[in-house]
From TrEMBL, chain A:
<dbReference type="InterPro" id="IPR001030">
    <property type="entry name" value="Acoase/IPM_deHydtase_lsu_aba"/>
</dbReference>
<dbReference type="GO" id="GO:0009098">
    <property type="term" value="P:L-leucine biosynthetic process"/>
</dbReference>
<feature type="binding site">
    <location>
        <position position="403"/>
    </location>
    <ligand>
        <name>[4Fe-4S] cluster</name>
    </ligand>
</feature>
<keyword id="KW-0411">Iron-sulfur</keyword>
<keyword id="KW-0432">Leucine biosynthesis</keyword>
<comment type="pathway">
    <text>Amino-acid biosynthesis; L-leucine biosynthesis; L-leucine from 3-methyl-2-oxobutanoate: step 2/4.</text>
</comment>
<comment type="subunit">
    <text>Heterodimer of LeuC and LeuD.</text>
</comment>
<dbReference type="InterPro" id="IPR018136">
    <property type="entry name" value="Aconitase_4Fe-4S_BS"/>
</dbReference>
<comment type="similarity">
    <text>Belongs to the aconitase/IPM isomerase family. LeuC type 1 subfamily.</text>
</comment>
Automatic annotation (TrEMBL), chain B:
<dbReference type="InterPro" id="IPR050075">
    <property type="entry name" value="LeuD"/>
</dbReference>
<comment type="subunit">
    <text>Heterodimer of LeuC and LeuD.</text>
</comment>
<comment type="pathway">
    <text>Amino-acid biosynthesis; L-leucine biosynthesis; L-leucine from 3-methyl-2-oxobutanoate: step 2/4.</text>
</comment>
<dbReference type="InterPro" id="IPR015928">
    <property type="entry name" value="Aconitase/3IPM_dehydase_swvl"/>
</dbReference>
<dbReference type="Pfam" id="PF00694">
    <property type="entry name" value="Aconitase_C"/>
</dbReference>
<keyword id="KW-0028">Amino-acid biosynthesis</keyword>
<keyword id="KW-0456">Lyase</keyword>
<dbReference type="InterPro" id="IPR004431">
    <property type="entry name" value="3-IsopropMal_deHydase_ssu"/>
</dbReference>
<dbReference type="GO" id="GO:0009098">
    <property type="term" value="P:L-leucine biosynthetic process"/>
</dbReference>
Length: 463, 194
């Protein structure tokens, strides 16, 4: 039978199948952080069972970490306690932890690919919905709840029903100024936040084939915002080149063997999907969200939808926007460039390229938060920090930061933030905060102008 | 874990679509390291005004509603994987959620905490919401064995994975099962490529 990429990876990890029930899926890598792991460790203790495969677990501190003065003790007692618990639990169970200050510390979905922990054909899980990010490598990666974190601790496996398969193909070439974030915001705006539920998505077509690994990670990261369990992109030369030479990547002959296997990880011609969608790259222009879920997105030059819909009305009331209005010219006081969606080196290069020689608007508080210590290091090595400083931006220290505001980085009540993060839910970036999701380029342009501006390239100017 | 099969309860109607986990339990309450006590912050920013006073417009604060069932709009539990959302609902006293659609991770988390997510057709959901709003003492009967839900003369069946149904009925969970399979998992590891 012809198999999809998803079938190939899934089927090779099935330990056992229960008749009329779920399957036991083996997990190659388990990533953990401070927020969703403590109760799972408690559960193991309560049952008096050990961690089955501690060497296949990697821990990092990210959600609660401050983005300034990371060398000082964390002020917030509850955050500090959660990080201390993570340290204790990792010490007790012999789990590798990249704690605050460690050269490999960073957002779990940024640091694991950077270190070569994420590899094609693997299964990876983490108690965080954006684990879907790692699917960019042709891995099956998905977010799990804390009870499941405990299950993986106890057995390195999960009991699961095999999800359905969806393929989203985008062919053609992207217009200038259209980034991977725009592609995924466009897809979600067309299909809706519940469209991927019960499915694993394979992103296929020229647009994804031509995308960098960073861009692919952005796309797969937000597949959860369509409700999908995860997103995947078939591994190719771009993938192999990214993995090669990274700290935990296979080396020498082992790497060659792995590549031979990874090359087989693509959907067979005529393999079947439960559902398919196709889009044309030329229809996509820079995007922005106006509402309170990631599906409420429009192209920068479009107007907010009209029509009678209680959910639309509820969200516009929260955002204080009018039906039918344009967002161009909308004043904004905050810009956040960071989060597991857009805090990789490529994102900061895009921002630096745009802001070079320009000055940040005086009304803007811009938070530039790298995804990891390695990204922060690279920013310095490439001199991007000097560009940011000259333009009036301040670079902060790595972490999840204002994506979910568990640390001090909160957008004040009622303020607008153009954010490169993944969720514009009510209160997500702080109680009463109003989030507009966009690409790093749109965020950079907003920071310079102090308001939302059009960066779309008119069709007539195209060659 | 407790077991359950049939029960009857009144319900709270929360007719909002796409209720995300950040609304069910905001991120600032995720700093705890145990599972208890999340109920007091369930729907925190909808239940309370910013000054801490009660929002009397919010359904959980309406005196006429009570019970252990939450009836909610389409795509309930979207967003984060935080199991704290399921813990908060359970801690507040909900055993059953009824909606026309659930986000995957939330659904799994609910089941793992023995909160039953019942999926019904949108039309059924609408008539149920209207019935409760009209008469808050409307009783809903849930029968897990028969996989039925009913109120008045309106009956519906719902799907549930047979294994998960057994877990709910017997108070069993996945860890028990997986630990019983460790030798099989070890054998798998011997021939596994990674």
């Amino acid at each position: 039978m012809k198999k999809t990429l998803f079938d190939k990876v899934w089927d090779s990890h099935v330990v056992d199948s229960i008749p009329n029930g779920p399957q036991i899926l083996y997990i190659d890598k388990h990533l953990i952080h401070e927020v969703t792991s403590p109760q799972a460790f408690n559960e193991l203790k309560r049952r008096n069972i050990p961690v089955f495969r501690p060497k296949q677990i990697v821990a990092t501190a990210d959600h609660n970490t401050p983005t300034e003065n990371q060398h000082l003790p964390i002020k917030d007692a509850l955050s500090r306690n959660q990080l201390e618990k993570l340290q204790q639990n990792c010490d007790e169970h012999n789990i590798e932890l990249y704690a605050l200050g460690h050269e490999y510390n960073g957002i779990v979905h940024v640091m694991a690919p950077e270190l070569g922990i994420t590899q094609p054909g693997m299964t990876l899980v983490c108690g965080d919905s954006h684990t879907s990010t790692h699917g960019a490598f042709g891995a099956i990666a998905f977010g799990i709840g804390t009870s499941q974190v405990a299950q993986v601790f106890a057995s390195q496996s999960l009991l699961l029903k095999k999800p359905k398969k969806m393929r989203i193909t985008v062919n053609g070439s992207l217009r200038k100024n259209v980034l991977s974030k725009d592609v995924i915001l466009y897809i979600i705006s067309k299909l809706g936040t519940d469209s991927g539920t019960e499915h694993f998505i394979e992103f296929a077509g020229e647009v994804f084939e031509n995308m960098s690994m960073e861009g692919r990670m952005t796309v797969c990261n937000m597949s959860i915002e369509m409700g999908a369990r995860g997103g995947m992109i078939a591994p190719d030369e771009t993938t192999f080149a990214y993995v090669a030479g990274r700290k935990f990547a296979p080396k020498g002959a082992d790497f060659d063997t792995k590549i031979a296997h990874w090359k087989t990880l693509k959907t067979d011609a005529s393999a079947e999907f439960d559902i398919e969608y196709t889009f044309d790259a030329s229809d996509i222009t820079p995007m922005i969200t106006f509402g309170t879920n990631p599906g409420m997105g429009i192209q920068l030059t479009e107007n907010i939808p009209t029509g009678k819909d209680v959910n639309l009305e509820k969200s516009l009331e929260y955002m204080n926007f009018e039906k039918g209005a344009s967002l161009l010219g909308q004043k904004v006081n905050y810009v956040f460039i960071g989060s597991c969606t857009n805090s990789r080196i490529e994102d900061f290069r895009v921002v630096a390229d745009y802001v070079k020689g320009k000055q940040k608007a005086s009304n803007i508080n811009a938070w530039l938060v790298p995804g990891s210590q390695l990204v922060a290091k690279q920013i310095k090595e490439e001199g991007l920090d000097e560009i940011f400083e000259a333009s009036g931006f301040k670079l902060r220290q790595p972490g999840c930061s204002a994506c979910l505001a568990m640390n001090d980085d909160k957008i004040p009540d009622g303020e607008y933030c153009v954010s490169t993060s993944n969720r514009n839910f009510e209160g997500r970036q702080g109680q009463g905060s109003r989030t507009l999701l966009a690409s790093p380029l749109v965020a950079a342009a907003t920071a310079i102008a102090g308001k939302i501006v059009d960066i779309t390239i008119p069709v007539l100017e195209e060659v | 874990m407790s077991t359950f099969n049939t029960f009857t309860s009144t319900a709270f109607p929360l007719a909002v679509e796409n209720i995300d986990t950040d609304q069910i339990i905001p991120a600032r309450f995720l700093k705890a390291t145990d599972r208890e006590g999340f109920g007091e912050n369930l729907f925190r920013d909808w239940r309370y005004h910013k000054d801490g006073s009660e929002n009397t417009d919010f359904v959980l604060n309406h005196q006429q509603y009570s019970g252990s069932i939450l009836v909610a709009g389409h795509n309930f539990g979207c967003g984060s994987s935080r199991e704290h959302a399921a813990w908060a609902l359970k801690d507040f006293g909900f055993n059953v959620i009824i909606s026309s659609f659930y986000a995957d991770i939330f659904k799994g988390n609910a089941l793992n905490n023995h909160v039953l997510p019942i999926q019904v057709a949108p039309e059924y959901l609408n008539s149920l919401l209207q019935a409760i709003q009209k008469n808050p003492s409307t009783e809903i009967e849930v029968n897990l064995e028969a996989q039925t839900v009913s109120f008045g003369t309106h009956n519906a069946t719902f799907d549930i994975d047979p294994y998960k149904k057994m877990c709910l009925q017997k108070g069993y969970d996945d860890i028990d099962f997986l630990v019983s399979k460790l030798s099989k998992i070890e054998a798998f590891e011997q021939q596994h490529i990674y």
